Amino acid sequence: MTKPMLFVVAALLLVLGVGLMVWEPAGPEAECAKDSGKTSGFVDEEKNCPISIESYERIREAETGPQWDNIGGLVLAVGGVTTAAVAAFRKTRTAS
């Protein structure tokens, strides 16, 4: 690949990586508890109803679990920086 093409690939990887790290995916929807005696203790302000324990556990897992979009974005950004470094420091080959 030519140097300009490597810089284009590096820029594309950086933009995609930063975009993935900044983008916030929608979390799971809160579900109202069917039995008002067994709730998580939290209230859904939009629906004005108590949240079920199972729904709260799914929400917490999504918020505290590994953020795969951020991890993927970081990998793409590092790949972009590495590609840019290779393009900057790579010498052109001459036929001997």
Kindly list the characteristics that best describe this protein.
96 residues, mainly alpha, two-stranded antiparallel ribbon, 2 strands
Written account of the structure:
By secondary structure, this protein is mainly alpha-helical. It has one domain (3-89). 56% of the residues lie in helices and 4% in strands. It is built from 3 helices and 2 strands, in the order H-E-E-H-H. The protein has a two-stranded antiparallel ribbon. Helix 1 (3-22) runs antiparallel to helix 3.
Précis, in short:
This protein is mainly α and 96 residues long. It has 3 helices and 2 strands, in the order αββαα. It has a two-stranded antiparallel ribbon.
N-to-C SSE series?
HEEHH
Low-pLDDT residue intervals, each spanning 5 or more residues: none
Please outline the major beta sheet.
Answer: 2 strands, antiparallel
State which percent range the strand residues make up.
Answer: under 5%
Mean pLDDT: 86
Shape: rod-shaped
Radius of gyration in whole Å, from Cα? 23 Å
- Counting DSSP H or I runs of 4 or more residues, the number of helices is 3
- DSSP, total strands: 2
Number of domains: 1
**What is the first-to-last residue Cα distance?**
20 Å
